[in-house]
Amino acid sequence: SFEIVEDMVDLAFLHEAAILYNLKARHVQGKPYTRTGDIVIACNPYQWLHGLYSTANRRHYANALVWKASNSLNTLASLDPHIYEVSAAAYRGLAIDGVDQSILVSGESGAGKTESVKICLHHIASVQEGTAGQDEHDIDNDSDNRSPSKATSTTTTSSTSPIVQRVLDSNPLLEAFGNAQTVRNDNSSRFGKFIQLQFDVEDPVNAIYAGHQLPSCVLAGSKCEVYLLEKSRVVEHEPEERTYHIFYQLLASNNEIKEEIW
């Protein structure tokens, strides 16, 4: 029988059947994330998983990989695979190691790429604001089945800087003009985007955590380049699909806004 592992480099036999079995088995266990070396594979669960994106979990990964991180190779192995390890490791490499970082998110339509990017952005924002060591309202106290990124926004709004909040608030705007409902995905991105987060080195005096002085950096700005927009969807689309969200949002707006626009 096949084995179940957190990191697929530990598979005794690395072939398609073993990989698919491992991903499926972890998915059934409510564990959507699996490592393959430095890569984190995400299987879209299409449901809310209690505790997966909680404040405690965000704090746990930030502390383990950034603020209280050791040089031990066992640090990552002691953590369950999670997208938070990607964002936390990127922040550590940028702030502490002083090396530019890149996060590449790729996958099939409906795989959860858009949500994964937003989750990473929110986690980086919470790490840089020092919220990893503060008590916050836990997003899992909310009873509705919201997406992880929408739920996380309730904890970032009150504490983040204006620049961070503007970067986070740009997502709904881009999605309105570039996302649409398809047969496979109700919020499918019909364009590609390249996001650059610009950080500045923080004053070491302000970069103190738990009594220890640590290098830190703060988000100073952001640039976003969009490309490959599916322009044909503006005038036509396949059956059971829709055009871009913005058109339906305009039609659903109140009469005052419609009169102002038209």
Report the CATH C-level class.
Alpha Beta
Helix content: 25-40%
Rg result: 20 Å
How many distinct folded domains? 1
Poorly predicted sequence stretches spanning 5 or more consecutive residues: 131-145, 152-158
Beta-strand fraction estimate? 5-15%
Counted beta strands: 8
Distance between the termini: 65 Å
CATH topology: Kinesin
Would you tell me the overall average pLDDT? 83
Main β-sheet description: 2 strands, antiparallel
User: Given the helix and strand composition, which structural class is it?
Assistant: alpha+beta
Order of helices and strands: HEEHHHHHHEEEEEEHH
- The named CATH superfamily: Kinesin motor domain
CATH architecture: 3-Layer(aba) Sandwich
Number of helices: 9
Strand order of the largest sheet: 1-2
Jot down its keywords.
Kinesin, 262 residues, alpha+beta, globular, two-stranded antiparallel sheet
Describe what this molecule looks like in 3D.
With 262 residues, this protein is an alpha+beta fold. The protein has one domain: Kinesin motor domain (Kinesin, 3-Layer(aba) Sandwich), CATH 3.40.850.10. The chain contains 9 helices and 8 strands. It has helices at 16-28, 55-67, 74-77, 83-95, 113-128, 148-156, 162-178, 245-252, 255-261; strands at 33-36, 39-42, 179-180, 188-189, 192-201, 208-209, 212-213, 217-227. The chain has a two-stranded antiparallel ribbon. The protein has a two-stranded antiparallel sheet with strand order 3-4. A two-stranded antiparallel ribbon has the order 5-8. Helix 5 packs parallel to helix 6 (148-156) and helix 7 packs across helix 8. The protein is globular. The protein starts with 15 loop residues before the first helix and ends with a helix. Mean pLDDT is 83; it is low at 131-145 and 152-158.
